Amino acid sequence: MSTITTGSPSGAPHGHGRQARLDAFARTTAEMNERLHWRADATGVLHLARQLEDLDSKLYETLFPGARAAALIPQKTDIDPGAETHVYQFGDISGRPRPTHAAMGRDFPVVEITGGSATVALGSWTCGYRYSVQELRRGAMSGLSIDASKANAARKTMSLNFESVMCSGSSDYGFKGLANNASVSLVTPTTGTWSSATALQMIADVAKGIRAIKVDSKGAHVCNLVVLPPSLMALLEVTLVVNTAVTAIEHLRRTYPGIDFQEWALLEDAGASSVARIVYAERSPDNYAGLNVVEFEALAPQLEGMDYVVPCHQRLGGVMVRYPLSLRYMDGC
Q1: Neighbour-count burial of 303, counting CB atoms closer than 10 A to its CB (0-12 exposed, 13-18 middle, 19+ buried)
Q2: Looking at CB atoms within 10 Å, which of 115, 167, 282, 330 has the fewest?
Q3: What's the pLDDT tens digit per position in 218-235?
């Protein structure tokens, strides 16, 4: 059978992966014609393929409320999807330069990363969605696009899993996320229990975590990101500094203009014994990164009985932390 060639709305051709998926759809449609004796000419097949093309593009562009992982965690996306594991080094930098004198170039200190290496087993997740032959016939007859709600549900399911893996890793595959890395130390709040704390006490707790990164790393790392659970952010947003009209979060943002204060719902139970956890970080791909091999892909439709089933796939490896001193956690607030 001939290949159906389509392009993007701008007129540019699709990449090999997208074109192959459309070709597979056309082949599957031809197979259905033969099995069910469904009379469908080339125009009908092309209509269905273009519906798939349009739906496919929308799925990759879809953003869901509350999706924060990609903004908070630099993503490492250059890992081959065929890889089963990823190895990286972590620790602290050791070594310092010294005067070379007459021995220039022959006797010099070597900089090392003192710590160790970790091998992470990459993991895959799958789900899918289906459309019946009748739904596709109805769309072809009316010239309307097929209902995208099923495909969007599959995309959202994958998005939620991406958020969870980036935050807390996966117990199934044995890797960690941003909020539960065993190499990252806890900072104990001075006050804690913010439900009864003053604005200045909350500010002091937040400042303690910020200070810990700089002091513990001897200035090698400087906090530029503080991520709080919504419940704690809400307290900072409504609690006023005594005798002022300034809230605690406003005070923090004025005091630390170089720090991005964000919230992430998944931190509500990310701490020890499922308590709320604050994450402090020097956000940089050199310090930590999410192993994002395949965030989302929808594969070629498969004909099962009277339904088209579209498998969806995701492949991730949690968050690798190269320099643990660039991160700190705080529980108990």
Answers
A1: middle
A2: 115
A3: 999 999 999 999 999 999
